[in-house]
Here is the input.
Amino acid sequence: MRARTVALAFVLVAAASLWGNGSLQASAVGVPPRIAIERAVAQRIGGNAAVTLASLDTTVAPLPGLVAVPDPAARSGQPVRFQLFAAGARVGSAVATVRVEARHARALRAIARDEVIALDAVTFVDGEIANVAFRHLPGQDEIAGLKARRDIAPGEALTDAVMVMPPLVRSGENVTVVVRIGKVEAQGAGIASGSGHLGDTIHVMQKGSRTALKARITGPAAVEVTP
Here is the structure.
């Protein structure tokens, strides 16, 4: 079922109500924590990233609509704590070591801080990326013209940790807000109360309202409300 576009005020009220009493579930089929974690990381990294768990420790059983939210400092190849939510309520946590394989850019030579990065200074490879934050991996069409945030060594992966990436959403910008509860989806207009990149969590508000909800950036001027 797909709900028609509605005013954001109705969307937010409905979402808060449904999350609060758990009256609507995503599916009758439970989502295992492993799948919820893999989905969460893949969504944040983007592209065609292949995400697998090298280890998992949790007591949470599969639940309909289970969603995982990683610690903000999480990195691949290291034990990471994830908070687990179902029907808008926290149901527990998990500690997992996540492996990430994806097509990504690496420096062909040393790149100096503040240097404008040219495509002939990078190469794209497929493989595992260790010790990388769960953030968007820029593609070839995004890298050219960016500046190095710091000195980059030959062979180093080019992520937003070493490059100055323009935000996809800027504070005060009008954004499209999507709310998904189970198979129901609704969208409306909102205002970003924070800037960020793909996968980052910011707050959004409706015009004329001081009520703010957490939302994950899903694209240029687009966000999705999160638990």
User: Anything to note?
Assistant: The chain is about 15% helix and 35% strand.
